[in-house]
């Protein structure tokens, strides 16, 4: 074989090696790419500086700096929630204490409040009554009950009612041993509500009420953390040993709302847990009685007056 022929053969062989190497590299790259997880794309709401939470006309969602929590921005019948847990606020260096807000006293308002739910029977029945009347109520829920009945909690939220924190499981001995225990239970229940709904309530109600339970340091600690506690000034006594029937409950509300109440407000305590069938039966009569006295209906918010 002459020199020219040998050169051609060597060239062909070298070309094959180069092509083979290139193909091998390309294949290895393809396999490696298939082994890698897909790139995570930015989702809506993740833009830098944009705050979490779903805005809605059905409720007021507080901004991180609380700048939208003003008297004029808070509606009488629209709940107010936070987009952050207390821990998230503290980690981000955001304020926890709410701004000073005047209380709403311009007209006669009845706040229908229901404690100790949500349960699977009486809470939905109460929601049906409120829906029939086109009225929003306030439900102070237990964390343990919310975990048992998340779909009922979602219905309360979806239908525009206010949700408040009523501790995790109503254990007086643990709750009132000290303010640290009380606050820990509030935060525990906040987390339950946040995990189900994606929002956190500001409003709370102390089990059994604050009278005889709270000392000044409880109020101070709650105020610093942005919790707003409300007791009541009208009750149906549906959680007392009297076990009043529907007619008696209507009578209690009627007598306690005669004449002038502080700040033109009737903050009515009822319950929506098991065994409160008479409360369900009484509710239409209670609503009719309050309407006849000129009350309109609202939900508890940070601008709701204190009942005492």
TrEMBL record:
Record-annotated NodB homology domain positions: 108-298
- What GO annotations for molecular function exist for this entry? hydrolase activity, acting on carbon-nitrogen (but not peptide) bonds
Q: Which GO terms are recorded in the biological process aspect for this UniProt protein?
A: carbohydrate metabolic process
Coiled-coil region(s) at which residues? none
In terms of InterPro entries, this protein maps to: Glyco_hydro/deAcase_b/a-brl (IPR011330), NODB_dom (IPR002509), Polysacc_deacetylase_ArnD (IPR050248)
Q: Entry's Pfam families?
A: Polysacc_deac_1
Which PANTHER family does the entry link to?
GLYCOSYL TRANSFERASE-RELATED
- Name of the protein: Peptidoglycan/xylan/chitin deacetylase, PgdA/CDA1 family
